[in-house]
Amino acid sequence: MTNGSPTASSLLLQDLGMSFGAKTVLKGINLDVKPGQFVALVGPSGAGKSTLLRLINGSHRPTEGTVNVLGVNPGTCGRKNLQKLRTQVGFVFQQFGLVGRLSAMENVLMGALGSLRMPRYGISTYPAALREKAVSNLERVGLADHRFQRCDTLSGGQQQRVAIARTLMQDARIVLADEPVASLDPGASLSVLNTLKKVSAEDGFTVVCSLHQVDLALQVSDRVVAVRDGSLILDTPTRETSEASLRGIYEKAKGAGS
Ligand SMILES: Nc1ncnc2c1ncn2[C@@H]1O[C@H](COP(=O)(O)OP(=O)(O)OP(=O)(O)O)[C@@H](O)[C@H]1O
After folding, report:
1. What interface predicted TM-score (ipTM) does this complex get?
2. pTM score, two decimals?
């Protein structure tokens, strides 16, 4: 089902467009992301970043153009292939998406449910190998000592690192992160993004991460892609851009009354 060539794209968007009724939200988007890249997706509120991430994970079908993820078009691949693709594409949300009354360990184990036939209730009902993997992934995000703590008693930054560890259980080849640090203070934000960067480099998976904090985008990404008014207006290696030019993208949007 997937394109196995090492030089193949993780993600290939061609002439992508999306409208909701008469409202055009994205137009003419072309993007080719190679395996292992960390892409920061920036742009003002309403620019279309979340819509783009939803098109990539198959939650929306484009009204124009094509999406190709790991060699598969999520819009046309059929339900079974879409399910399989979703196990290879992890999603990290702004609001963490954890079950607050459950422990960090149980939340992380839930990331493996896609590989199990039956639902599980409680840590002891998961196979030992998965329990070991969950502890190891919590160690990788610096939270092994907190594994039995209820998630709703962890700090926001710790909760987002649990969400990253949960995604690691999928052995995802792409992780899509939609404003993962929007509700965190600057220190916790950097810590979460550095954690995501570290584990992506260790495992070689691709990251597309929407962010409003341009300073953080510059610190953690290899490549910056900017969207404004539904169009891709910048696509550049991070080392070739500056904080001032990224801030300009937001200033122009304000000037245009967005
Ligand atoms: N299901 C939908 N139906 C109608 N309009 C939608 C839908 N989803 C998104 N939109 C519109 O598409 C536009 C882009 O929204 P989107 O959430 O993708 O922007 P964003 O860049 O992620 O914004 P933010 O940074 O504030 O999260 C907005 O005008 C939004 O109202």
Report:
1. 0.96
2. 0.91
Binned at pLDDT 50, 70 and 90, residue 7 comes out as low
Model confidence at 257, pLDDT cuts 50, 70, 90, reads very low
Q: Which domains does the chain have, with CATH numbers?
A: 11-255 (3.40.50.300)
Length of the chain: 258
Ligand 1 pocket test target in 20, 56, 227 with most atoms within 8 Å of CB:
20
DSSP string, 120-189: --SGGGS-HHHHHHHHHHHHHTT-GGGTTSBGGGS-HHHHHHHHHHHHHTTT-SEEEEESTTTTS-HHHH
Q: Which of 18, 24, 26, 50 to mutate to test the pocket of ligand 1 (most atoms within 8 A of CB)?
A: 50
Give the tokens for residue 196.
Answer: 């995501």
